[in-house]
Amino acid sequence: MIGRLVGGKYSLEREIGRGGMGSIWVALDTQLRRRVALKLMRPEMTSASSRGRFEREAMAVARIQNPHVIQIYDYGIDEEAQYIVMELLEGEDMEARIVRNPRLSIAAVATFVTQTAKALGAAHAAGIVHRDLKPANIFLARGEAEEMVKILDFGVAAMSSLGDDLHTTRTGTVLGTPHYMSPEQARSARSLDHRSDLWSLGVVAYRALTGQHPFTGESLGDLIVKICTDPFAPASELVPELGAEVDHFFERALAKDPAQRFQSARDLMRTFAGLVGDGREGRAAKILVIDDEPDLALLIKQRFRQQIRKSVYEFVFAQDGAAALEQLHLHPDIDLALSDINMPGMDGLTFLERASELRPLLEVVMVSAYGDMTNIRSAMNRGAFDFLVKPIDFKDFEVTITKTLKHVTDAQHTARSLEENAILRMFVSGVVLDRLPRRAMAGDVTASESVDVSVVFIDICGLDRLLASGPPEAAMRTLNANFEIIVPEVAARNGIVDKFLGDAVLAVFRGDQHAERALDASLSVRSQLARMAERAGEDSPYACGVSIGIDSGRVALGSLGSRALSRLDLTVIGAAVSAAARLEAIAERGQILISERVFGAVHGAFECEPQKPVTLPGHDGPAAVFNIVGRIQASEPSQISEARTVQMDESSVRFAAPGDADRIHEIQAALDGGSSNR
Fold first, then answer.
1. How many C-beta atoms surround the C-beta of residue 311 within 10 A?
2. How many CB atoms lie within 10 A of CB 423?
3. Angle formed by the axes of helices 394-427 and 296-303, to 10°?
4. In the beta sheet, which residues pair with residue 507?
5. For the chain, how big is the Rg over CA atoms in Å?
6. What is the pLDDT of residues 501-546, one digit of tens each?
7. Run of H or E residues at 605
8. Are residue 261 and residue 165 in the same domain, yes or no?
9. What confidence tens digit (pLDDT) does each residue in 4-57 have?
């Protein structure tokens, strides 16, 4: 293989990596005379899925314009083997770093979290979900001045830009690395989106800080159950100095429900960066002053000697931007920086850019002369919080410090309030939180309304057997494991979980096609639990199965309880609720029983089996009952793939499917569009 010319211009020099699909080589680009990394797929990997994964990686990276994503220079097929040409990196991946240093400092972790989040943000903006983020795919590339994160391996990425549906995955398909999978990814759920990547980044950060994965298991099935159901040990239990704020971060980053997590990579990045400066209350505000004037440090110490003595302010000094970056590493609790623009070493504008990489929440005030307004304007456009002009007016200097510190404190309080609200929503229905402000303004929180709905009772089978055979804690774990599957499926179809009744869930669907959505949710719950039982084992919590009852009708939606004791609950009351409960009670394990009213609303869309008539609340005489087998699917025309030959670069190349040549040209067009490294 050494010396082989790939693609007519890449000479293989030495192999540096090997995997199940192929190998990675250092190669010389004989035209541009530069060394590159060349990923060469084994020729025998001819399956459509293998070829598609390789092509997908090239297509995904070509669409992301971000310096923290490895850059691809070329893609093609040589002797029926696909290849990708990438920038050649020097350094190590996060896996090697963590193995060598099992517990990294929070400042060090903040640096790689910031850069990784920026890469993910660019990918998500391009409609790409990585789906396999882990330490081995986070590369720490050595540069001239500092390390830079590079995200690798987009081979299992999902891309809306290529027509992928980011909210669906093929039934039964598991993509990714188990320890870093989100609950929805472990379940192959329909609701997989960019927030799954954010979960994975949270797991990487947790392991980097504590040296342990948040979830472990003796088997794949056991691990899946824990990811989907169990809590994880707070980081401060493993590393006490991390503190409660770090625990709050991971409670949100690793929330089972994607809606409770960070909603963007930027949100996660800024919140984690805020942890570096945690503990501001009760200590002096730490201010970094960057200026090459030798007398400035003495002047500041004299001017603020009383505040320094009273531990109101603490000043740290640096003579240029490079020294200031080192101070940020040494003092992760710095609150703000005041930087001159013109300095003989690294200038202030460069420091501003580098500081945003290390500490996104750090506020920087720029200092320069009156005649340097162009640079000051440039600094403000790059994110500087404010500016001062020389010669410095120390009264204005102190007012600016006070204003900036107040902004920093307010930002921290806002982040804390958002986390507290997220926790509150875990215990209070979102419907209640949405309705309360309107009802409070109207002066009546107990008013009810009449609405047409479909009511669904979902019961976990075998609770009595669980309680008889083990401790109550085991039964609780089993129920929560099932509820973690049920609730997202209900919410994905705009259903409302009214309440949990022991081993049952009462859900309500209102609005257009509420009956169809109720049935779709029920079918999905049944199939998801069956798939999880197959994946996690018949002794797992998912093997219990469910019985479901559904009825439709008019109900009263309102608040019940005691205003005097400040205890109210939002609930639904009506014959449809009682009828759904009755249908669930007579349903066997795996059955979804519906009333005649529901059947009339969904007939023709679902395959239904008539059952023995029963007496139901709100129905006159024996009522017809039906068991739902499944949704009736429209047949799709078969597609025929045939080989064809295309002409490219004056050489005949044979492809296994009609789309190959078009894909190569499409990838090449994306590459030709340019990137930050080209």
1. 11
2. 14
3. 70
4. 456, 497
5. 30
6. 888 999 999 899 999 999 999 999 999 888 888 877 777 888 889 9
7. none
8. yes
9. 898 888 999 988 877 767 788 899 999 999 999 998 887 776 667 677 777 777
Q: Are residues 486 and 598 in the same domain?
A: yes
3-state secondary structure (DSSP) of residue 541: helix
The reply to whether 574 and 506 lie within a common domain is yes
Closest CA to 127 of 87, 167, 155: 167
Domain range spanning residue 519?
448-631
Same domain for 609 and 559: yes
Residue 299, CA distances (Å) to 145, 289, 305, 309, 401 in order: 32, 12, 10, 15, 16
Q: H helices within 331-458, ranges in order?
A: 348-358, 373-381, 394-427, 430-442
- 431 part of a folded domain: no
Domain annotation covers residue 229: yes
3-state secondary structure of 190: coil
Is 132 one of the annotated active-site residues of the chain? Answer: yes
Three-class SS of residue 677?
coil
- Residue 209 belongs to some domain of the structure: yes
Nearest to 551 by CA among 576, 585, 584: 576
Which H or E element spans position 533? helix 514-536
What is the rounded CA–CA span in Å between residue 636 and residue 427?
Answer: 44
Question: Which of the following is catalytic: 29, 74, 78, 132?
Answer: 132
Q: What pTM was estimated for this model as a whole?
A: 0.56
- Let me know if residue 637 belongs to a domain: no
Question: What gap in Å lies between CA 291 and CA 369, rounded to an integer?
Answer: 13
**Distance between CA atoms of residues 77 and 79, nearest Å:** 7
Residue 465 tokens read as: 């057997």
DSSP state of 173: -
Task: Tell whether 573 and 649 lie within a shared domain.
Answer: no
Statement to judge: residues 133 and 240 lie in one domain: yes
Whether 191 and 98 share a structural domain:
yes
**Residues 6 or more apart from 463 whose CB is under 8 A from it?**
475, 479, 502, 503
Domains in the chain, number:
4
Q: CATH number of the domain at 545, please.
A: 3.30.70.1230
Indicate if 262 and 323 belong to the same structural domain. no
pLDDT at position 556 is 85
